[in-house]
Amino acid sequence: MEHVGGVEVEELPETRQGAKRRLLSLFIADPHQLFRECLARALGRAGRFDIIDRTESGTTLLEKFALHRADVLVLGTDVPDAELAGLIRGIVALFPAVKVLILGRAESNEQVVECLLAGAGGFLLRDRSLAEVVSAIEVVARGERVCPPGAMRLLFVRLGALGRERKRRERLDRLDLTPREMEILRLIADDLTNPEIAARLNLSVHTVKNHVHRILEALGVHSRWGAVNHAFAKGWLQERRRGV
Amino acid sequence: MEPTISVMILGGDRVFAEALEAVITGTEGLCLCTDTPAIVLIDASFQPAEALALTWSARERFPEAQIMVLGLEREDESVLDFIEAGAAAYLLKSASPAQLGEALRFLREGQVHSSPRIAAAVVERITALEKGRKFVPPPASCDPLTARELETLSLMARGLRNKEIAHALRITVQTVKNHVHNVLGKLRVHRRRDAVRVAYELGLLREPWGPLDLF
Hints:
The structure holds 2 protein chains of 2 kinds.
Chain A: E1 3-4, E2 7-8, H1 12-20, E3 24-29, H2 33-45, E4 49-55, H3 60-67, E5 72-76, H4 81-94, E6 99-104, H5 109-118, E7 122-125, H6 130-141, H7 149-174, H8 179-189, H9 194-201, H10 205-219, H11 224-233
Parallel strand pairs in A: 3-4, 3-5, 5-6, 6-7
Antiparallel strand pairs in A: 1-2
Helix pairs in contact in A: 4-5, 5-7, 8-10, 8-11, 9-10, 10-11
Chain B: E1 5-10, H1 14-25, E2 30-32, E3 39-43, H2 48-61, E4 66-72, H3 77-84, E5 87-92, H4 97-108, H5 116-132, H6 147-157, H7 162-169, H8 173-187, H9 192-202
């Protein structure tokens, strides 16, 4: 409970909260004038937004937006979905801070994914309710992303494919060294000198030197220390061993 | 009537697995399956690291199946690791059996319901991974290798030196050098290591690990 001059001020915390949650500024773009105006009015009534401007979503959009930047750009569009990703990339390149919420028809989930990867903060299908639009605006303003479930599935699949590719690349990276070289690298990591490695593996010191030279060359490093670090960073070696 | 979804349970505690089995057997539209599941459920509640490894291997073992990870603590980065490993969906510890049934039905319809926070994190990681890809245009094809060159290449892949290859194939070192020279030329690379790498990319050599030998 806050006390100001001995008087209980109950509304203070609320006022503070209100001050912290300043109104989000919105810019509404949609080719359909009646829809645009109605949406602006309805969103304005929600009491959480400050509607800065509205316009058609054609070529004039970028010029107009430059004059009245807003936190969130609500972009309804008759731009074919295929071109939408390009438009978003343009907006994000020019105004990196703006969050773009698309109100679209989404001809396909693939295109929704393309829009999100192009930098859109969210994609809301036009059959969603007004209340959902309101909460979606708040979500994208926080830096989170609104994504329909069908497109979400595709995002997961895409990340899965990239994950597999990464795993495969890591395994191929390991092939930069032959099994023998990997064995020697392990011993280098154990702090053995070349003569010690030679004795351990029954090789001549000269041969060990050659191997070490090839290891450094293959990994693109300049020192034994660099090679060992590389191996740990890649997860080829798991732990430091002492006294082996 | 909707076709039955066949479900397999992997990992996790026995008692949880059995409880889960009981729920699945008792739910219309779901059945247990041991060979070709449509859905693989993996419990990650107690040993997330093992569950992650299990997800990687389940994806290789059951390429047709969709994997759902159960029992995650919260929606954070760890969720992304499972998705990278091939999970198609996930449920948190706090989910109810009804939500499990719902998630399974959504999955069949090609839908995943997730939070905006995870959506943002997924988009971010995809972008990072796509940027981090070293752009090495893999050659679409190469001039065909002779049987002898292919043999030489497979020995190169095992790390053998020219002298050792010569010994193994009972040919002179000079002949080996010629073969190696031709292989590098045909694969358009300069180093033996790169030749081996490209050979795997093109499928000329089989990668030296089985589907389960991921770690």
